[in-house]
Structure formats: C-alpha cells, structure tokens
Amino acid sequence: MSDAGTPNTPLAVVLLSGGMDSCVTLAHAIERGFGIAALHVNYGQRTQQRELQAFTDICEYYGIGRTLVVNISHLAQIGGSALTDTGIDVPPGDPESARIPVTYVPFRNANILAIAVSWAEVLGADAIFIGAVEEDSSGYPDCREVFFRTFEQVIATGSATGSSISIHTPLLHRTKADIVTMGIGLGAPLHLTWSCYQNNTYACGTCDSCMLRLKGFAAAGMTDSITYQP
C-alpha cells in the first residue's frame, strides 16, 4: 500500500502506540483510503521497548515507510503515573472503580497530539487518527470526546493550516468486544500488538489494559493470540 497522500488520496497521521486499539485504528484509516504517516511516541513508559517493537512490526506488516518515532521522556521525569514511575506499583485492574487510576499519565494525549499536529502541518496531512476509547476504557480524562473536540479548536486557532486538520476517533464509543470484532473484520494484525502496562515478555493478564483486552476477546467469542504470563 502507498503511505503517501496524493490529490486523490488524503494523508493521515496515525498515532500508533503498538496496542490493539491503535492497530485497529490504523486498519480503519487504511480501509477508509488514507495514505499513512505512522507516529510513535516513547515517553519513558515501563514497556517502551516492547511497544516500539509492536509499532515496528505493525508498520512492516502494512508496508508503511513514512514513520516517525519521538522521545518525550520528560513525562517520566515529571512522573505521577505508575506507567512512568517505577516507584508506583501498577495495580490489578478494577473495572468497577470510578476513580482515575494511577496508570493515567498526566495530560499525555495533549502532548502526543501536539506532536501529531506539528508533523501533520509539515506533511500537509488532512487528518490525525487516534485509538482512544471513552466508554470501555480505564476512565482517563484525555480519552473523552469533549477533549478531542476541544483540541480541534486548539488546532484551528493555533496552527498555520487552521481547521483543515481533523481528529478522527473511530473507536471512541466502542466496547473492547466491538474493537476486537472490528479488528478481525479489517484483517488487523492483532497478534503483533502489545497492551500490557508492566511486562515486556509475557502480558501480565492482571493490569487494567490486559483485563480490558481479555474481556474484549472473551465477549467477542475470540481467543487472544498473544502470550500471557503463566
């Protein structure tokens, strides 16, 4: 597939963490006919190297040549999250909790979107795709629809290209089961993705991200093909 936008093929910057949601979002953008520029951000997270491997594997799978990997490890220096601070334990998942979990990285999506907008301006991209999920996620405040619509206003106000860059959130109101089914339907390489918050070899199966993923596969009547800790 082509990774370049043309007059007949709009270009999208796709935020590709290497997780299942971002992979399905990428598959959706490709299915919609967008040329792809894949952006990955290392921010000092525990599974940084494993997520980068997943990003590389997914890009190779789709033949994406236009890629950018950015380091914003200052988020780890700032701390305040179990994903970036090894002094804070990653807790077992608690789907019933209404509190924002300690795995929330303060204002992470705003930092990542700002980078995506900068790259989109230079590339002349029409859209930014992000695999955020609001209804069946860990309750992060920067994964809500109001956040993304407000950020679009920031783009329109503060960028040279103005409102020509839109933020696409195709998974925002889907459940994990919906996402699994959608991914399989699109032929997304879910076996190459990595969702675990704390392990790099075997997925722990107990953190919020693993539990939501496993719940999604079970509800969809599918079996997850990645390896979980015995």
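Above is the first protein from milestone M3; the second protein from the same milestone is given next.
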Amino acid sequence: MTGDKKCKICRRAGEKLFLKGDKCFTPKCVFVKKPYPPGKLESDRKHKSVRSEFGAYLMEKQKVRNTYGVSEKQFSNYVKSVKSKKGVIPTSMLYEILERRLDNVVYRLGLASSRPLSRQLVSHGHITVNGRKVTVPSYRVSVGDIIAIREGSLNIVPFKDLKDRLGKRTMPAWIKFNIDEVKAEIGGNPTDSDLTFNLNSVIEFYSR
C-alpha cells in the first residue's frame, strides 16, 4: 500500500491507523496537516459533520479492517463465521480470529515493525510454524504451535539485532517467547480485555 493511500485511509477514519515504520509517524504525516476527510470543500471543514449511525458503523469497520490489513471479502467472511456460531460472543471470537492470524502474531512478537512488513515476511517464506515454512499471512495459529524464523533467514536485514530489540519488548500474555532460541509458543487464546476497537459496531454493520 502506498503512503498516499494510507494517508487517505487515516483521514477518512479521523485518526492514525498505521504504526511506527509507516509514514503516519514521521514528520511528513499528511493527517497532521489535513485532519479532515479527503475531498471535503473548504466550507465543510469549518463545521464538524454529524455522522449517521450507519456511517459510524462503516467507519469502525474500515478502521479495524485497515489496521489488520484484511481484504473486504475476507473480513466479511470472518464476521459471517462468528455470527453463525452458537454459544460464543461474536466480538470476542472476531478479535481472536484477527489476533491469531500469522502475520499479526509475527508483528506482536516484534519480528516486524509493522503489519505490512510482517505480511511480507510471511509471504516470502521467512517464518515457520512447527518447523514448516508457511507463506499464507492469514494462516490461523493454534494453541501449542511454535512460531520461529526460518534458519536460512536469520541474517536478513529485518532480523538484524533482533535479540536486542526483543529484550525490551512486552509480549502478549497468550504467547510464550524464548528469546535465546528466538521461538514463540502459542500458550493460549487472545482475550479482548485490551481491545481498543468497537467490534459491536462492526457486527452491527454486517447485520444491517
């Protein structure tokens, strides 16, 4: 995704969605200079627009989808799958699905500085699950899975000085990390206790 496209996404959402390593957190950030939706006329910028309920749901859906880098079709399928299951809390299950994506796990571990980079690392075959190379960013890890860097990839630039960087990083409670071996084990399921999104709005959007 190009920098200009990322800037438009942030401006539509009304907040910065991308993390360090991306243009949003550099002095060149367009959102700082133009904190209003792209395409707005000068007269519109002077008044804060009131969003409809549908518009609020749409905005939250786009925010979640763009943060995790999931396509519209894939995201829609995720929501449909959680809505069809009985005896589960849809928002908690949706959060679990998003967090258990391999590209997200690689990012959470600090092996990549951003989710776009983590997707690239997975797609290029630098990450293994239980000793086998996995090239599908959306691959869903399970409890007990071992995540590691492929042996032949340990010396590439993204992993330079990795142990020094990871020693200062706080890992999610549901992931057990062995810094000496640079391996991680999925020790449980992610919980939405620290969730910053309104996933109820996302569910409502697809229920309209």
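Note on the second protein: The chain has ten helices and five strands.
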